[in-house]
Amino acid sequence: MERLQKVLAHAGVASRRKSEELISMGHVKVNGKVVKEMGIQIGNSDVVEVDGVPIYREEPVYFLLNKPRNMITAVSDDKGRPVVTDLFTNIEQRIYPVGRLDYDTTGALMLTNDGELSQLLMHPKHQIDKTYVVKVKGLVDKKSLNRLEKGIVIEGKKTAPAKAKILSSDRTKDVTMVELTIHEGRNRQVKNMFQVIGHPVEKLKRESYGTLTLDGLQPGEWRELKTFEIYQLRNSAIQEETTK
């Protein structure tokens, strides 16, 4: 579901603010009824009209990107830095990232214009697994892994249980490679978790997002999702919700 003014803006009717004005002035109908409420949520099956003219809603598209380093997870940047949508030069639809990866973090990032699915996947209660490979300073021991798995207190709130395992350790370089799977999406969560246990992150890559993996994708490359992959993501989120 998406807010009505956002649907209008995405359809190219007007800016978000101008769309709000159109709604408040009674120019917009949803399923044949005039709507003046700003916060109303619109689904894919709802028919929206502006001054009696049905708006064109883009066909939903879904992509998986292997995000490279030094790129902003956004559709624009006021500092002029490269953003992930710069890599989709031949895509006509206005896509946006689902969640975010830090500027220096690489790996699996989904982009779409399907606001309903995007919100479903990002909602905390839906628990979409995200697996990271993390290079950290120091030699991580089993006690530290247990702390990660049981939850780390960050800014007064404990993280949800996670899965963690050591992939390799290098005593000479004093670094450890750890695989960590979480389902939350708190800001800089992985980096903060390792910082708390005394192992600062040196390199971070998201290897998978739900059932999506980076197989066959080099940094900066992307592919369109298959129908069954979209179904798996949506179904996974819905199942997590119904088991609560």
TrEMBL record:
It is an enzyme of class 5 (isomerase). InterPro entries: PsdUridine_s_RsuA/RluB/E/F_cat (IPR042092), PsdUridine_synth_cat_dom_sf (IPR020103), PsdUridine_synth_RsuA/RluA (IPR006145), PsdUridine_synth_RsuA/RluB/E/F (IPR000748), PsdUridine_synth_RsuA/RluB_CS (IPR018496), RsuA_PseudoU_synthase (IPR050343), S4_RNA-bd (IPR002942), S4_RNA-bd_sf (IPR036986). GO terms for cellular component: cytosol. The keyword 4Fe-4S does not apply. Belongs to the pseudouridine synthase RsuA family. Keywords: Isomerase, RNA-binding. It comes from Carnobacterium alterfunditum. Residues 2-65 form the RNA-binding S4 domain. SUPFAM superfamilies: Alpha-L RNA-binding motif, Pseudouridine synthase. NCBIfam families: pseudouridine synthase. It comes from the Bacteria. GO terms for biological process: enzyme-directed rRNA pseudouridine synthesis. Pfam families: PseudoU_synth_2, S4. Its EC number is 5.4.99.-. This is Pseudouridine synthase. GO terms for molecular function: RNA binding; rRNA pseudouridine synthase activity.
